[in-house]
Amino acid sequence: MYKVFFVAAAMLLSAHVYAQEFFIAGSIRDAKNNQLLTGASLQLEGTNRVAVSDAFGRFKFEKVAAGEYTLVAKFIGYSDKSEKVTASSNVEVTIHLDESFVMTDEVVVLSTRADEKTPATFTNLGKEAIQKQNFGQDLPFLLNWTPSAVTTSDAGTGVGYTGIRIRGSDATRINVTVNGIPYNDAESLGTFWVDVPDIAASSQSIQIQRGVGTSTNGGGAFGATINLQTNTRNDDPYATLMSSAGSFGTFRNSLSFGTGLLKDHWVIDGRVSKINSDGFIDRASADLQSYYFSAGFYAGNTMIKAITFGGKERTYQAWYGVPQSRLQNDTEAMLTTASNEGWNEEQTNNLLNSGSRTFNPYTYKNQVDDYKQDHYQLHFSQRISDAFTANASLHYTPGKGYYEEYRYNNKFSDYGIAPVTIGDSVVTSSDLIRRRWLDNDFYGFTYSFNYEKNKLNAVLGGGWNRYDGDHYGQITWAQVSAVPSEYQYYFNNGDKRDFNIFGKATYNFTERFNAYVDLQYRKVTYTATGIENKQNLLNVNESFNFFNPKAGVTFAVSDNQVVYASYSVANREPVRDDFVDALPGKKPKHENLQNVEAGYKLIGKTYMIKANYYLMNYNNQLVLTGQVNDVGASIRTNVDKSYRMGIELEGALKISERFSWNANVTLSKNKIKDFTEVMYDYGTNFDEYNEVKTTYHNTDISFSPNVIAGSGLNYKPVKNFEATLLTKYVGQQYLDNTSDSQRSIDAYVVNDVRLTYTVQPSFMKELALSFLVNNIFEEEYESNGYTWGYAGGGQQYRENYYYPQAGRNFMAMLTLKF
Questions:
Q1: Which single residue of 196, 240, 308, 480 has CA 20 to 30 Å from 24?
Q2: Per-position DSSP letters for 316-347, written without gaps between them
């Protein structure tokens, strides 16, 4: 009896031991310099348990049954590493990864990115962080919580035309590359994310460099750089379906797939996406389609990868904004707005009877922007030796599309059309429909040679690109039948060529002290000939030669503390409109920027702190003055001296196993030394035309808030469930450069809540349900705007226009991974 009892007790004790659960936790570090690695993936081999190292380089598997496991760690640019662990108690391990000598996709962007030894200010976002927030909104809205960023949406929902400013710098001053290939429009230097909807679904990583940053391809970085890398090699086959639905008739469906490694050499990936939204603003609908396909060949030291991606967008125009009079529901002021705009009775009634925050002046059913853009890239990388790697890339981007407008009572003379005689009447104007077309090609090549051995890491890179774009306009319909159908009333061509070569090197004087130097030469030529849309003759032929030096140092105070400082110079050419709209006899000058960055980073076991000081001194910065040229187009002019100066603070804190918090705040001053505003005075009887100039001293730069803050409070109450409160504060912004609060955007604070529940069932890799509530506290705010004005009849008139963002709205998403 005692023996039976003893055996039974032993069996129960054994069962209890095997029923016990423990955790396996630890950190991931670079074997060479012992730096923590964020975004490394870890898997318990033979299970579907996966973890990703956090901002502190740490990971954790909870509730692991007792037993023997093999822990596999992977990170781009490093060799995979397997480590045996025994879960008979809680396990804590540190895994050191060695740099890989097998060719990976990372080499494509390596030459244009900063790393921990680069004295630059940057933020990295890995695939997991990107996908958490990717409910189908444009990429700027996924970057909204990064430091110094302010985003806006014409439609108010983040779908359609969206924009981002970083440190107050607009999209034309933010250099964007995709796999090292320039993405900014070559003529305007703007970035149109609507042309590549859902590109985030095919993004492996994104690096945002603030300030001048490192040398890259394309236009000069005058505020920031966004460096995007698309999907990298995945050795395992997969399929992912993401479906989202939410407020304002928003739907997004995306299907991604990959073959995994075929015959030890080939990998094929693909994605197709469809996004629709009615928009918050009246009629601000979006119909977006996009795709991504790639085929890669990997053979030890060789990588060849062909990539194509693109999109087709058809968005109803919402770019005119909402007048302040409509926002304030002021009937008398709305009538004044209608008079100032020259609107007819139908347009005025639309203004008076629309929603105060959703007004759209356009009512014509086909008032749309319709554009298609395709990108083709071919990348070749060859590791010549353990120290030397060569990369070359070819690219080609064709784009074609138009925007269509219904125009009320337009003068024929504005279109080069002679008056039309009908019976005894001479008709000089009529309603009409016009299309303005853009048909362009952008192509070229980039290259880099990377050398890393002993204490030296050096890159020689550059590229050549050409843009060839036709701009033309057609009248597709007019009330007066004598106007020929498809009449072309203007045509002009823009041709831009951009050559650059750069060399940069980091030298490790000691294990802790590194010096960095980066020298770039860039040559830009631009010609534009033909007739512009206002019937003015174009004859632009300009060239620029820029030398952009950068230098700095980093010093590792300890394994987890780094200080850095750098000084950089950047030059930037004027954009197309600066040439086209310049006053007769005046040429816009190129802009010059000197940038100082100095920072400190500290990463502890449960906390992270970053502090950065920046000073961006501008010479000849181009700003709007209120002045117009002889055909009525607004012009920009160079201001001699201006600057941006600020402090960026970032922090992350792991409060407990359930709570974590990350936050950032930017405190800045953004000033123009001397600014002259031009106001037009039409006299007491509206029969004069005089320029009234007012000079302001030490005035604020428009759209540059002095305070920007972001926060993410994360809570994991139970296994597989995560709740995050996302908060964004943006301080007051001025619509012009006069520091007048009557022409400004009020400060606002917006809170979003994101909920995610993820499981790994036996029949698939992952099933996730996500829910996003935007603007949960129903903040009424505007994120962008513009202003204009004039004097006449003894009074001064000002019109402010704003872009209201949606109140409380939601998105739900189902993600299936196989």
A1: 240
A2: E--TT-EEHHHHTT-HHHHHHHHHHHT--HHH
